[in-house]
Amino acid sequence: QVQLVESGGGLVQPGGSLRVSCAASGRIFRVVSMGWYRQAPGAQRELVAAITGAGSADYADSVKGRFTISRDNAKITVYLQMTSLKPEDTAVYYCNARVVLTTLATSDFWGQGTQVTVSS
What we know:
This protein is mainly β. The chain has no helices and eleven strands. It has strands spanning 2-7, 10-12, 18-26, 28-39, 46-52, 57-59, 67-72, 77-82, 91-101, 106-110, 114-118.
């Protein structure tokens, strides 16, 4: 019903920057929110940042001041700009979208994940 395609992950040195993107498509009537979660090996998946349709953003304490989430409503795309990256930011980053479908049902969808590795 809804597809999320992520891009932009990779390997970066500590202190570096990286941007990941997530484009949504499918039977979308309205996007409630889009966001990024991450999961490191042996850890639970955690919220990194999320942004509502109105543009209100929320961040995990560990990334405040370093990461910025934004969205392009026309393209139904969300971006996560990551700066001052640390080794502890290493994880698989997953895009999430909470949408109202054309059937007017509300559902959550996930991307396939993109690896971000911060290492020298």
